[in-house]
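Q: Here's a chain of 167 amino acids. Please give me its 3D structure as tokens.
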Amino acid sequence: MKTIDIFWQDRHLCFSEKEFDAFAGNFPVVEAAGGIVRTAFPEPRFLYIFRNGMWDLPKGKKEKGESDEENALREVREETGLEELEIIRPAGHTYHFMRGADNVFRIKKTAWFLMRTPEARRPVPQIEEGIEKAEWLSVSEIRMKSGQMYASIANLSSRFLNVPCES
């Protein structure tokens, strides 16, 4: 049976699909997409951004009429300045709570895609979006920084990059 994980700060809830559908029906849903971007230096490295004191993956809200793939590619390009991106395959979804400016809780559903790029240049953080850094991290660096990641991002990193979460 497939389960769905949802995160809020340090809490992690796990639902069956049927339970999740009933639970999520009580909240507005914000759709987003993002990328888990890989490049090869002498060793594989993955693209992470740093904003609001946390390491994160590039992602953002879907624009009207945009597919998940278009959304993910646009957000990675905007947040990191990388242009040569190729989607390898879908990487599932994450769900987490967010509170809007109106103080209403929403569920943010993010579609993830594994991507690759031949670009080995330093990414450029989108400062106007509060992104302080955009960096290529090795698996060992990701492991060391997992304590400074949102729970949903640490969980995703653990699942798709084979990086255990630090406790």
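Q: Can you summarize the key feature?
A: The longest strand covers residues 86-99.
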